[in-house]
Amino acid sequence: MIAQAAVALATVVSTAAGATVALPPTTALAASAVHDRWVPAQDEEVSFVVDGTTTYGTLHVPARRRGERLPAALLLPGSGPADRDGNQPPAFTPNTIRDLAGVLARDRVVTLRFDKYGTGRTGLGEWAGRPQEIDYPAFVRQAAAARDYLQGRGEVAPRRVALAGHSEGALTALVLAADASRERRAAALIMLQPLALRMLDVLAMQLHDQTGQAVESGAMTEDEGRAADRAIDLAVTDLRGNRPVDTTGMPPSLAALFQALAGPSRRYITSVDAYFPPDVARRLRPMPVLLTCGALDPQVPCHTTDQLAAVVGHRVVLPDVGHAMTTADGTLSPVLTRRLTALWW
C-alpha cells in the first residue's frame, strides 16, 4: 500500500508538471527523490551449498523502500519429487508453492522457494548414483541452510523469518521451528495440510481406504480386501522393524509400492516415519502458528491433524478444497489467503 501511494504521488506530480503552471524545481526534485527511494519488485535466481551440493531456488523481493528490511518466509513443498513451485512435472503441476509465494508477495513478504534434492536444477547432487543413501534429515539440513541464507539477505529483517510448509514440507518446517537455536528462531510457523501423523501410518490409512473402495466397487472381493489389509499392516510393521518385506500375494500395484519402499526408498521412508509431529510440536517456543486442513482432502483428512491441532491450540478448516488447497477454479482458497494476510510476524 505504501508503494502504491508513492507511485500515485509521483503520477500526480508528473501530471501537474505538464499543466500550464510548471512545477518549481524543488518540487520536481522531490518527486525524483520519492521515485529513487523505491526499489521495484524482483525475482532472483539464487543458490547455496549444503552437504557438498548446490541448491538452486527463487528469491522474490517485493517493492520496498531502499534499505528497508521486510518480513520473509521460507516455503517448503510436499513429498515426492516436488520442485520449488510445488510441481512434479510434467504430469502434476498445481503450482502450490509458486502461488503461495504470490499471495505473500501481495503482503510485502520476501519468499524463498528452492528445488529440493532430486528435483529441478538441484537434482541429486552428492547423492547422484546412490539415491538409496539419502535420508529425511538431509532434507531438513537443506531446508535449514535455505533458512540461514534467507535470514542473511540484506532485504530481510532476520528476526522476522517465518517457516511455511505444505504436506511433508509442513513437517520439515515444524522440525526446523522446534529445533532452532535462539539466533535462528522462527518468527512464525505455517503448516498447510500437514503430515500430522507418522508417515507410514498415513500411508497405511490411504492404502486401507483404497482397498475399501476397491471392495465397494467390486474390483476386489471381501476376502481379497481383508488379505490386502493384513498385508499392508504386516509390511508397515516389517519396514519399521528393519526386516524384509514379503510382497507375495499382494496385488501388483501394492507389491510394487512396498518393493520400492523396502528397497531404494527404505532409508528415507523409515527416517521420516521416525517423527511423530505432535511430539515435535511440544518443543515449540511461543510463536504465531497457522495450521490448516482441507475439508475435501483425501490424502491428509482433517481428522489426521486432531492431535497436532490439540498441541498448537487451533486449526483452520479450508472448505471446498483438497490437498492442493485450491478451489474449483484452480486458485488458492480465499479462506487461506485471508488467514495468511491476517498472520503477523
Question: Could you describe the 3D structure shown?
Answer:
This protein has helices at residues 2-17, 25-36, 96-106, 136-151, 168-179, 199-217, 222-240, 252-262, 266-273, 277-281, 306-312, 334-342; strands at 38-39, 42-50, 53-61, 64-65, 70-76, 110-114, 156-166, 188-192, 289-294, 316-318. Strand 5 (70-76), helix 3 and strand 6 (110-114) form a beta-alpha-beta unit. The chain is α/β, with parallel strands linked by helices and 345 residues long. It contains twelve helices and ten strands. The model is unreliable at 1-34 (pLDDT under 50). The strands form two sheets. It has an eight-stranded mixed sheet, sandwiched between helices. Strands 1-4 form a two-stranded antiparallel sheet. It is globular.
